[in-house]
Fold:
Amino acid sequence: MSQEKTITILQLYPNEMNIYGDWGNVLTLGRRLQWHGYTPRILAHSPGQKFPNAVDIIVGGGGQDSGQNKVQDDLLKNSAILHKLANDNVPMLMICGLYQLFGRFFKTADGETIKGIEIFKAETHAGPKRLIGNVILDTDFGDVIGYENHSGLTVLDNNQPAFGVVKKGAGNNGTDQTEGAVYKNVIGSYLHGSLLPKNPSLADTLIEAAVTRKYGEFNPEIIDDRFAQLARATAAKRPR
Ligand code: GLN
Structure:
C-alpha cells in the first residue's frame, strides 16, 4: 500500500474572521486534496493559542472591524512566523479583513488604526461607502469570480503586484482596477463568495504549491468540475 500523504491546512481565527462563506475555502481545499489522493488535516488557530509547528497551507477570512481588532495582537505576535512561512513559499489565501491585515494597516471609519504584518506592501483606509457586489477578475490563474463587501480602500505600493485586474466590480479601491495582492505563494483578495468553490483552478494552484513543496511533485487527478463551472457561469451573469 502506498504511503499516506498528508497536507495540513491551517485556518486563522475561524471565530473572529470568517464571513460570507469564507469557511468554504477550507472545505474546498480539504475535499480537493482528497480527490487528488492526499489526506487533509485541518487545524485552526485562535488568539492566544500556540502557533502550530508544521503547516502546509494557511487560509484566513474576512470579518467586521471589531473582529479585526480582536485578532490584531495575536497576528502581530505571530508576524515573524508568518513572514518566515511566506518566504519559505508556503501557500496562503487571505480574504478581505485578513488581506487588509497582511498589509501595513487598516484605518477604520472611527479613525482607529488596526496594524497589520506587512507581508503585502499596501495600506487600507475606510472609504465613504461599502463596496458590495459580484466581481470578475483577470488574473495569472485565469478569470476569477467572486463577491466583495468591504469599506476599506486598499492602495498597493508601486512595487506591490496585484492579484488581478478588475473586469467587473470595485476591487482594491474602485479606482485603479487592481484587486488583491500577491507575494510569493501568498494571495490576498477581497473576494468571498466563497472564492475557491467557484474557482477550482485557483484552489488547485494552492494545493499544487503545498504538495510540491512538501513531497517534491504533484500528480493531480482529473476532477469533474461541472458544478463549479455552472456556478461560475451563473455568478458571472449576475448583475453587480
Ligand atoms: N472590516 C473590513 C472592511 O469593512 C473588512 C470587511 C470584510 O472582511 N468583509 O473593509
In short: The helical segments are 23-35, 65-77, 79-87, 96-101, 195-198, 200-215, 226-237. The chain is about 30% helix and 30% strand. The CA atoms of residues 65 and 108 lie 7 Å apart. The longest strand covers residues 122-139.
